[in-house]
Write a structure and sequence with these properties.
Elements (H helix, E strand, L loop, with lengths): L1 H6 L3 H9 L1 H13 L12 H157 L1
Helix pairs in contact: 3-4
Length: about 200
Amino acid sequence: MRDVAGEGGGAAHSLRLLQRQPELFAKGERILRKTIAPARAVSVDDLPRETAERGQQLARVEELERLLRVKDAMLWSMLNDGRAKEAAQAESSRRLEEARVAVQTVERGSRDELAQWGALAGEYQQRLDAVQGSLATQQQQAAQLGAENQQLRTHNGQLLEYGERLRAQLQALHEEEQQHAVEQQYQQQQQAGEVGVAGAVFS
């Protein structure tokens, strides 16, 4: 392709030749359809003119061949570019399909994982509710036990006060009994003394 482009004088020249393709083809067809007159005697003076015409015809033919080669090269390049584009599009489609499958796989995995986390969260919520209910029951029982303990402390205090009063009363009764026993003993002693004095008088 570089040789063909160089031969045509670059891409611009090749483009001009390609644009002139219909005109050159028409000239070529006219030349091919042109009937060749039978050989006749030609004067020496006609040789330069005929040589010039043959040279022009040869130049046109070479230009047409050059144009055909440029056209073939351009078509081949366009064909290769088309194949490359098709391959690139196929590769892009393949990658897009792989990306789509990967995204779907990730989405399915994410949904499954979210469902598992949701179920786990529900289970932990149930456990938490049960623990909170048990804790509330225990707190209620603790409050009830605290109230009962307070009542028992109050009752024990009352019992202690009552025991102290009974102890004081018993102590007072004991002291009264001792005093009464002393008084009785004293009275008996006095009575015995009086009896002894009376006996001495009568004797």
